[in-house]
Amino acid sequence: MTAPARALHTSRITSDAAAGRTVFTGVRADLLALAVYALLVVALHLPLVFGDSGMSDFDLIGYFYPYWQERAEALRAGTLPLWNTHLFTGVPFLGNIQTGIFYPLNLPLTPLDAPRAVAISYVAHVWIAATGMYLMLNRAMSIGRMGAFAGGLVFAFGGFMAAQAGHVNQVQTAAWLPALLGVFLTAYQRRSVWWTLVGGLVLSLQLTAGHPQETYLSLAAIGGLTVYEAFRCARAERDSAFNRRFAGREWYILRVLGWGAFGGVLLAGMGVVAAAMAAAQLLPSVELSGQGIRSGGLAYDAAVSFSLAPWELLRSLLPAYTEPPLTEFIVAPGLVALALGLAALLQRPWRRYTLYFLLLAFGGVIMAVGNFAFWYPWVYDLVPGVNLFRVPARWLFLTAFGAAGLAALGFDLLSSRLPSLASRSTPAAAAFATCVALAAAALAIIPAWLYGSLGLLHIPPPEVVLRWFAFGVPAGLLAVYGALVWRRPQVAGALLVLLVVELALAREPMPVSHPLPSSVFRTIRPGLSQFAQDTSQYRVLSLANPAFEPGDIKELRALYGERLSPADVRFVIETLKYQDVLAPNVGMQYNIDTFDAYDGGLLPTKDFAAIKRLILDRSGRIPGRNERASEAKEAGILVRDGAPTLPDAALLGALNVKYGVADRLTDVWVDGAYHDLAFTRTLKAGERFAAPLEIDRVLPDGATGLSLATFLEGATTLPQGTVAGTVTVTDAEGRVDTYPLRAGQETAESDTAALEGAAHQAARGVIDRRWLPGHRVYAAKIDFGRVAYPRSVVVEAALPAGALSLAGLAVLDSRSNGDYSPSLDPDWPRVYTGDTKIYQNRRFQPRAAVPATVQRVATADEQLAALPGLPADGVVLTEESETAAGAQAQGDPAAGNRVQGSVTVRSYQPERVQLEAKLDRPGYVLLRDSYYPGWHVSVDGVETTVLRADYLFRAVAVPAGTHAVQFWYEPPSLRMGLVISVWATGAVLAVLALWPAIRWVIEVRRTYPKDAPPVP
Fold first, then answer.
1. How far apart, in whole angstroms, are the C-alpha atoms of residue 878 and residue 859?
2. Of the residues 643, 663, 683, which one is the last residue of a structural domain?
3. Is residue 843 situated within a structural domain?
4. Strands 516-517 and 53-54
5. Which one of 663, 694, 728 terminates a domain?
6. Is residue 1003 part of a domain?
7. Alpha-carbon distance values, 94 to 111, 149, 175, 212, 970 (Å)
8. DSSP character string of 431-464
9. φ, ψ at 816 (rounded to 5°)
10. 627/701 Cα distance (integer angstroms)
11. Is the pLDDT of residue 6 over 50?
12. With 70 as the cut, is the pLDDT of residue 494 above it?
């Protein structure tokens, strides 16, 4: 080897060694940063990581815990949960994308119970969010490690991720945004197919995590970055020597369009890869979306629900500490993070990504205000996809991300060695920086104070404002001085300490900082035990409101008060009350099928929403509620939010509803006697009502009197003392006694305002009717003067105008202070009384039955209209469905042919129901479970057609005799999706793994083309 060659060889070895040391040092620094993130995650979530505890939040308890528990139980049993029998009248389980069945990071959590699994998942995704943010900022955006580290802190430990702990699928989806954007930017900069495939892989993780709105917002962030990069790259090309002669405006625009098109193609490629990999989840979800209430988009007033009110801006952007706003309104990156962002804007506002993060943060707020902004209707009409989602406040996700990026840029500036605006610290420079800091504070404080004084901005308590100053003043001064005057590592270090402390304190009032022992979530309340005794298939409708104080509250405080703080004990009580009232979806954890449920996503289906509207229309709406709600918005409300009392028993019975749950908030005790005011009987002149009595088992020694809760409506002209009605009591011996109900004495006008000008005064025993403010009920006590055994109590209206209403009745025994208050609806007898009440529906129809009669209509709409008048043993079918079946069974009531038969449930599993039917002539077997695509049926092993029955359910034509009937759920969308996902995932992973070899082959082919002469 010659001397020059030897020297060149030596220099290469030295250069390679130096590069290796640099890379090794960088990797060590990265690993240290990720390890510090892990330590902070553990330190801030010690009970969630090491304790047997879980988070308490309404959406966790009422939505995610039931779904996660059901999913885990199915997977542990070796089955894929496809169908959910517990909610509505049966809906797809896997098709509901929020269940996260195919999200890979949920699979290792299967052995854990739901609260522990959600806790571990949340903690893990906080670390994923921090790590992704760090790597995106450092590797893809070339921001220094210290700045990237600060950005990861703000994004992962800020208010947004802490507040969304109750929405675990939002946290899972949001955590991948930094990684997705970093991978996209790397693919864009390197023009790399490999990184494009990695981007598709990360996007598929977002899709399967199960919150499409967060994925939509992530794609919006990438779309904004594509536009930003297109202008940046076009400007860089214009400044290059080659393109200086093509520096005209038209050439610049063409370059922008070219780079934008390249970014669009890159994003589309990632989307195709992700959609293919997630097809097993997406195809069933798309099928469900076509059946759900959001198909075709939401109505405007539904889409703008939960818009960020402008007066909540302060509490949204800054830590609330004591009284946080609604979870969806919280972004709270912290005052230190905002100060760091200010530093970035002061020193280098046109730095590479400063403007991008600023526009992202500002745009999130602009979109979050939703219905409070004049521009949002245009956005709703013109921007694709916006009309598919509600809660505009979720755009604050981008604000949190943008604020974290600005904080990273500011910290990177303060920790860098770049010169400040003033080359040395001088009095003039210090004075200038002070003026800037004061001006920035004034720009923030003066408008806030002005708007607060006008009532246009919610100003928190003084102690919160003091905390804002405690963090904001030093952070603002340090940031401004560091940016303009005195750039030292000490400044950056002080801000980093302030940042960590502020983020830790800001999380204190949120549920994530108040985990509860797992025993709380395993407790079975007394009301639930009532349902465990009934092993048949039935549904429950709960109208109960949890705004009550449990009867065992002292015992609960004593049990948990030694281990938990008073605030945490309050969380325990609230959690248990959700179980008491059987809050929507809670019954799913206890294998209780509930008719009323909520989803907030693709569910309920349009067919179920139509049934719900029918129920509400027939039961009467709660005054003042939902009068102006659109059809789409009203479809998502719960029956409990719209019905004043348990609806029509016959209609609910036909829907397989056996039990109703109500609270006791409107019930009263008069002189120690309990009055059940759940049902009201309104009587006009001459009308009478016989109260149902079953006192023998309650008061076996007889009764000494009655207490009646009554009121008048529209009877202000009745003079004082006029008999408005009578009460007739017939006892076991046949004795009949009649007692008057006189205006102004035993009863009176209910409306307080109307009573002021009435011809009679208020009666004795006034009861405030809390569920109708300003109205009254009057308790009248009747003394028998003897011991009697009442068999009949009849109330009859005798007033010439208006109406007499009986709200409650109590049978009294003054000797033992005993009392009995029957339900005033004979179809809804009360079977349990505790913190809540449980009523049993006497018009209940079983899950599977053989209808005796058949009614045929032309369309499904006519089917729905026929339901209220349908006989209890009848079924209504459409002519199209019978024609599709290829045969028509007998059972037409017009011909007088009634089918006699019975059905025995041999096996009832979510995806497979096996029945044995016996019929004396050809007829139908009706299964009161949802009619939905993908359900199949066979009779004696021969597959036949599933018919749509009673608008919502499914049926099958069955010949005479004894037959085995089997329904099973096997959606083609899942089968197709699984095939696509398996092949796409295998192909992507294979290409990623073999990519070095593929690149080597490409390079060899490029270096040695086929037509090249052989090397001698």
1. 6
2. 663
3. no
4. antiparallel
5. 663
6. no
7. 19, 38, 23, 15, 12
8. HHHHHHHHHHHHHHHHHHHHHHHTTSS----HHH
9. -110, 5
10. 50
11. no
12. yes
